[in-house]
Write a structure and sequence with these properties.
Layout lengths: L9 H13 L4 H12 L4 E4 L6 H10 L1 E2 L2 E5 L6 H5 E6 L4 E6 L6 E5 L6 H13 L1 E4 L2 E4 L5 E6 L12 H4 L4 E3 L6 H10 L13 E2 H11 L6 H16 L3 E3 L3 H17 L7 H12 L4 E2 L1 H5 L4 H11 L11
Parallel strand pairs: 1-9, 1-10, 2-11, 3-6, 6-9
Antiparallel strand pairs: 4-5, 7-8, 12-13
Helix pairs in contact: 1-2, 1-3, 2-10, 9-10, 10-11, 11-13
Length: about 325
C-alpha cells in the first residue's frame, strides 16, 4: 500500500470495511477495485481458483444498492445470453425484449476466457460504449455500470485468451495472491459458522455512487502531472524490450485512475506519487514484450519501474494559487 495517509471518503470507507470483513489481507485489491469503480472503469482479476476473486466481487456488489448480475462464461454461451433477446408474445402479437445480465449495475463476468471471442465481444462492447446492440438497435446500459471479470491464468486448455485490444478495455488488472498463514487461519475462524458475506449490508446507494463518480471527474490534474503521465507512457513504447507499448487509451486510463485514487485520499488534486503507484496496475496489461525480453525474464511491471526510474518527478504547483 502507499505510504500516504489513508483518509477515505466516509461512504467509501464503509464499503472497504465490508470487504475487509469478508476478504482477509486484500486491502490493496479492495481499494483498487473501488478506484476503478469511481473512475467508471472495469477490472480484470487474474489468479488461480480459490483465492477470493469471486468473493471480492460479490462483497463489493452487496455493499452497493445496485443491481448485481453474474455471467458464468462457458464455451457454449451465446452473445444473446449476455445481451438479451427479443421473444415473440402471442398474446400481444409483438416481440418483447428480455434483458440479459449485462443490463445490471455490477456485473461479475466469471471466467471470461472460457467463452468464444464472439461472446466475449458482446460484453466488451458494453464496457467500451456503455450501450449494446440488440437486433440492430442500440440499448443504453444502466448507470452506474461496472464489470469485474475473472480468469484463471493456469489452465489454458479450452480457453480463449483475451486479445490485447480487448485487454485494453480494462482499466486495471489485479492479482489476488495467496494469503499468509496467519490470514488463512483467520479466514477459517471467520467461516467456521455463518459466512461473513451473509452479514454484509448495502452502505452506498446507486445515486450516491453516481454522484461520487461525478465528483471524481472534478479532481484537478496539473499540467506537470499530465506531462509525467505522457512521458511514462511514451517511455514504454521506446523500450527495446517492448514489442507494443501502451496506447493513448492507457494515458487516459492512468489519468482517470489517478483522479479516483486522489479522491479516495481526500484530495481534490493528483500527485505524481498517485501516478507512480497506479502505473503497474493500469499499464502492465497494455504492453506486449519481445520474445527476447520474455526469455531474459523481463516483465511489464519491471519495465514500467525502469521507465519511472529514468523520469524526473515533477514538482506539483500549489493548486490553491
Amino acid at each position: 500500500m502507499s505510504s500516504q495517509t489513508v483518509l477515505y471518503q466516509p461512504k467509501i470507507s464503509e464499503v472497504l470495511r465490508n470487504i475487509n470483513k469478508v476478504i482477509i489481507g486484500k486491502d490493496e485489491e479492495a481499494l483498487l477495485s473501488i478506484v476503478a469503480l469511481l473512475a467508471k472503469g472495469h477490472v480484470l482479476l487474474e489468479d488461480v481458483p480459490g483465492v477470493g476473486k469471486t468473493m471480492l466481487v460479490r462483497t463489493l456488489a452487496k455493499s452497493l444498492d445496485c443491481d448485481f448480475k453474474r455471467i458464468q462464461f462457458t464455451p457454449d454461451l451465446l452473445p444473446s445470453d449476455v445481451t438479451g433477446v427479443s421473444i415473440y408474445n402471442p398474446k400481444t402479437l409483438e416481440f418483447e425484449f428480455r434483458s440479459g445480465p449485462i443490463l445490471g449495475n455490477i456485473v461479475l463476468a466469471d471466467e471470461i476466457n472460457r467463452t468464444s471471442p464472439k461472446t466475449q465481444s458482446s460484453l466488451l462492447e458494453g464496457m467500451e460504449e456503455t450501450s449494446i446492440t440488440v437486433e440492430g438497435e442500440a440499448v443504453p446500459l444502466k448507470k452506474p455500470f461496472f464489470v469485474m471479470a475473472t480468469q484463471n491464468p493456469i489452465e489454458y486448455e479450452g480457453t480463449y485468451p483475451l486479445p490485447e485490444a480487448q485487454l485494453d478495455r480494462f482499466l486495471l488488472k489485479l492479482k489476488m495472491g495467496y494469503p499468509s498463514a496467519k490470514q488463512e487461519m483467520e479466514m477459517l475462524n471467520r467461516t467456521s459458522g455463518t459466512h461473513p458475506i451473509h452479514e454484509v449490508q448495502a452502505v452506498l446507494s446507486r445515486e450516491e455512487l453516481v454522484a461520487l463518480q461525478d465528483k471524481v471527474e472534478e479532481v484537478y490534474v496539473d499540467a506537470t502531472v499530465t506531462r509525467y503521465i505522457v512521458d511514462l507512457v511514451r517511455g514504454t513504447r521506446n523500450d527495446e524490450g517492448v514489442y507494443l507499448g501502451v496506447s493513448p487509451r492507457g494515458s487516459i486510463a492512468l489519468m482517470k485512475a489517478a483522479k479516483a485514487y486522489a479522491f479516495i485520499r481526500d484530495r481534490d488534486y493528483v500527485l505524481p506519487d498517485d501516478v507512480k503507484y497506479l502505473a503497474p496496475f493500469v499499464l502492465s496489461h497494455r504492453m506486449i514484450l519481445t520474445s527476447e525480453a520474455k526469455f531474459e525474464g523481463s516483465s511489464p511491471e519491471g519495465i514500467i519501474a525502469d521507465v519511472l526510474s529514468k523520469l524526473s518527478v515533477p514538482v506539483q504547483r500549489n493548486v490553491s494559487e
